[in-house]
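To: structure subgroup
Subject: Chain for Friday's discussion

All,

I'm putting the inputs and outputs inline so they're searchable in the archive.
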Amino acid sequence: MKVFHKSKKLDNVCYDIRGKELEEAARMEADGIHIIKLNIGNPAPYGFKAPDEIIVDMIYNLRSSEGYSESKGIFPARKAIMQYCQLKNIPNVGLEDIYTGNGVSELITMSMQGLLDNGDEVLIPVPDYPLWTAAVTLAGGTPVHYVCDESNCWHPDLDDMRKKITPKTKGIVVINPNNPTGALYPREILEGIVELARQHGLILFADEIYDRMVMDGKEHVALASLAPDLLTVCLNGLSKSHRVAGFRVGWMCLAGDKSHAQGYIEGINLLASMRLCSNVPGQSIIQTALGGYQSCDEYLRPGGRIYEQREYICKAISEIPGLSAVRPDAAFYIFPKIDTDYYNIENDEEFAFELLRQKKVLITRGTSFNLKTHDHFRIVFLPDIVQLEEAMERIADYLATKRRH
């Protein structure tokens, strides 16, 4: 019989966040073993519920959501997104510049497929959200990783970014607030990125899904608000801020100067039409979600669950010898560093598997985020403090067995 192999287009595509470690955890759970999961930013399993008015809104609109919508999305949803852009000072976004999507993930892939020819380059941060690297690769492009500097709060290194721009570079991806580090970029860093894009005629891709999840009274600055003369592709959604990851509600806006990108926009329109439309029940809640009370704020202030869990996880990491982490400003991720002079850990995949099998704790290793060194891992601090305490005790016990003598 003819043997069918995986497409060669997938040879350099990976998404290890849902990779081998998660498969092993699922096998262990099938055997009745309880796993403490610190690996995926999915709020619902940890008791974070969507606001009641959103659920009521979806139920109310279900009967009228049975058919296809316009490929870009229903009018009330796009109108609400347009108004949100105005509040964020994102320039030149009209109704026709907005595309709803089945989560931001679909739109990231669409934005790359509509742009890239074989060999085109896109600058992507490292550590990165790996879907960006995968989407560039699958579209035939070449991901080029610029450094985010851990010694400078994980902010992008503008000098490194500048060195990696070539005649083949089409755009720069900025993930702010950042996954996996939880970093929030200051205005001056963003202005520096915009200036580089301006000098080299590049498109900016602003992944800002965590822009409503900022702590300590800090301000999120929308990248497009600093670049009215450039094309900025802005990506956002409700999965995290409104705890509806399973509803798959995202959107993409084309902001700024679009006069030189009509061919690209034609490609985006074609791809949007090919998938017919995003899920209409999900679209039906966007207006209520963006226009109503932002209940997420309750979690992010002192006394709120996400805030207090961040405080705990930062303290717990600092108390383990040979482990350190930059304090996150936003989202619900922290990216600890392992001192490999202190611990005998040279392979982070081996570390992740041993921690899972021996201590029943599932984390995501740093190389899953295209980091070259094997000395980091990501913790999602969505579990309540009782679970986090148990997890950190187990991590500390495991690391104690790895101390160098």
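Points worth raising on Friday:
The first strand starts at residue 36 and ends at 37.
The mean pLDDT is 94.

D.
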